[in-house]
Write a structure and sequence with these properties.
about 140 residues, 5 strands, 5-stranded mixed β-sheet, binds nickel (II) ion
Length: about 140
């Protein structure tokens, strides 16, 4: 039996959306409030969905405790209460958009999830209650 299973984690982080080659006015026009030069934060909700077979011995697709540990070690501990632009190794040189964060998180988690004999299915991130992105690794 194939199944999807999801672990939710949260992190708070600061960022700024901007391009060096834009003026502050252009950054404001393109990126809105997220271009504030003095940073700002979001409470992000992260949903990591994994696909796999239900193991007949355990009844699990994956041990969620192990999945949570991996997510915290590879992703959440690096992001939580940090400045995404300045402090997060896997976001260096990238625009700190929710889209790019989702792609980077996928790249961080793909290998360790494979090592649990499961397959990463999607990364979903809510930046606000109303805005979220989903990435399926393509
Ligand atoms: Ni923002």
């Amino acid at each position: 039996m194939k199944m999807h299973i999801t672990r939710k984690e949260r992190f708070n982080a600061a960022h700024r959306l901007y391009r060096e080659d834009y003026s502050d006015e252009k950054n404001l026009e393109v990126f809105g409030k997220c271009s504030n030069p003095n940073w700002h934060g979001h409470n992000y909700d992260l949903y990591v969905t994994v696909a796999g077979e239900v193991n007949p011995e355990t009844g699990f697709v994956i041990n969620l405790k192990q999945l949570s540990k991996i997510i915290r070690e590879y992703v959440v501990n690096k992001l939580d209460h940090k400045n995404i632009n300045l402090e997060v190794d896997f976001m260096q040189g990238k625009l700190a958009s929710t889209e790019n964060i989702a792609i980077a998180i996928w790249n961080e988690l793909e290998k360790p999830v494979n090592e649990l004999d499961a397959k990463l299915h999607s990364i979903k991130i809510y930046e606000t209650e109303n805005n979220f992105v989903e990435y399926f690794g393509e």
